[in-house]
From TrEMBL:
This is Uncharacterized protein. Residues 166-176 have a biased composition (Polar residues). Residues 143-176 are annotated as: Disordered. It comes from the Eukaryota. Residues 143-154 have a biased composition (Basic and acidic residues).
Amino acid sequence: MMNNSMLSDIQCMRTAQFSNFERSFSERQRKINYENLAKIENIASGSNDYTFKRKGNEEQFKHSVKVMEKLRAAINSLSTPDPELSSISSDKQSISELVTHRHKLIKLADSSKLGWKVVEQYETHQLADDSDDEKRIHKAEARAEKLDKEDKRKVVSKNRKRWSPLPQTNYSNEEN
């Protein structure tokens, strides 16, 4: 009797573990399928075909697409019969991080006289830790100023004509 009871308990535990595993696996698979479907919908909507006239608008659009993907994932997690709180919490956290980072970039561009050039340099050279963030901002601003001066120098050099000490004259045989 004891063996049968123990065997029955073990079978119940295995069945419960297996059903938990199955539920977890199907939830993960459903989430992956939903994310892939959202990406396919994004491609099918033609948003990738559009060519932006301004780089800042393109970057803002890309950011908005990322936020929308995360929101869709969070909404999808909530719509399940057994929503996993950890999944919803991580989706919420990633959305918050995306928006906070974008706000930081907008403030950086607004506070600098070179605007989005500084942000571009800041984003391309993210080697330091967050503790060195102030140094990174100053270095990005210096690089942006240097690039701005080089661009202006190129424009000026294209517009300059070479100085000639002698006046140019047209010699033709018809005047003789």
